[in-house]
Amino acid sequence: MEPEAVDIPYSDMYAGAVSFRSGSDFQSGPSRLADSPEGSRRDRCCLGECKRSLERSRSMTAVLIIILTGLLIWTFINTRIVSDLAPSNREQSSAPYSLLIPMRNEEKNVDRLLASVQKLSSPPMEIIVLDDHSEDTTYEKLCVWQEKLPLQIIKGRTLPDGWVGKVHACHQLAAAADGDYYLFIDADVELHPHAAGAALASMRDSDGLVTGFPKVPASSFLGKLIIPMQHFLVYAFLPAAAANYSTWPPASAAHGAFMLFTREAYEKTGGHESVKQSLVEDIHLAKAVKKNGFGVHLVNPAPLVTCYMYDTNREVWNGFVKNFFPGLGRSYIAAVLYIAAFTILFILPLPLAAAGLFTGEYLAVVPLLLSVMIKWLSDRKSRQPWWTALLFPAAAAASIAVLIRSAQTQLSGKRFHWKGRSYS
């Protein structure tokens, strides 16, 4: 005969579980845990710690949302203050300006640049190109172009001690120029037909310099991360109103690939000779222009000026390592602040958002969305692909890596290398 089945509640079965302690007596497991003061305290501590951790996470999220919302508004305002360079009815087709171009090992860029110069709607009164001891076919290509354009080709002098190569080349170009305006451009630039005329038209009566950050296409992965960061720093952090409407030197930005000076302002500041040792001569020249009482008009030339800066990951790395720490004034304090700010504001939101999605704290995703929106505003202004904003945490991390390497080079006493030359 089969024994009669008896239904026993699961809770009663669990309560019947026993544990053996030191070979003495049997005691029900749950009763022991429930009655143990140590177990209760441990449970309460665990619960309290989880609660405090959640509160800290929420507080951090709230602080990030406040800061990033403010930065988003600031960036939006800056992108409106910095006006786009665009064709204008005020273009000065007869303005006497000199187009000045330094070149060193630029054989791959000569044809593209000079073909665009040939199409300018406001042609320069003179085009002066300096070949700075190129080791490729730059000079030969320039000679061919002399049959198509009224080029004046200068063979650069030997680089003196205490000078940076490009700065010395620009100094020689200015000494040979006769225009009322000096338009310095890099050899890797391509000009829209209205670029020069629009820049001249944007020159205000009080201005000594018109400059801005061109569109910079990137073909390498590291380039897509780091190159747009130079525009981001301007639009997200520069006080653009002070940059454009005051002569306060600290509120200055410039890009050496496109700088239009009045002759008066250039000569009064001492020109490139006054910044002969600078690796970031563009910024130092802009500050010098302001110190001498002239205005600097920061524009967005991206619609009309394209600069093909670097082709490979190595070129991107070496180029920004050369400029990054010097661009911060070689200040270790500024470098530490940059690293801390970019880590907290632009890298931390990614793991915070991931944790929020995992735990159901969806508000934690907002800081990441805000940071991407800030980057998108900058990328949109500088004509970068929209999807590069999605790589922002990686871009911020890459920029920190470049800065650390740049500062480390300075700290170790090593020299910065570029185009076969080295600088301290």
From TrEMBL:
Gene Ontology terms: biological process: carotenoid biosynthetic process
Pfam families the UniProt entry points to: Glycos_transf_2
Gene3D superfamilies: Spore Coat Polysaccharide Biosynthesis Protein SpsA, Chain A
Subcellular location: Cell membrane
Pathway as given in its UniProt record: Carotenoid biosynthesis; staphyloxanthin biosynthesis; staphyloxanthin from farnesyl diphosphate: step 4/5
MF term (GO), any: glycosyltransferase activity
Primary location: membrane
Stretches assigned to the Glycosyltransferase 2-like domain: 98-269
Region (Disordered): 23-42
Key word Cell inner membrane present: no
Keywords: Carotenoid biosynthesis, Cell membrane, Glycosyltransferase, Membrane, Transferase, Transmembrane, Transmembrane helix
GO cellular component: plasma membrane
Superkingdom of this protein's organism: Bacteria
PANTHER family the UniProt entry points to: GLYCOSYLTRANSFERASE, GLYCOSYLTRANSFERASE 2-LIKE DOMAIN-CONTAINING PROTEIN
Its job: Catalyzes the glycosylation of 4,4'-diaponeurosporenoate, i.e. the esterification of glucose at the C1'' position with the carboxyl group of 4,4'-diaponeurosporenic acid, to form glycosyl-4,4'-diaponeurosporenoate. This is a step in the biosynthesis of staphyloxanthin, an orange pigment present in most staphylococci strains.
Protein name: 4,4'-diaponeurosporenoate glycosyltransferase
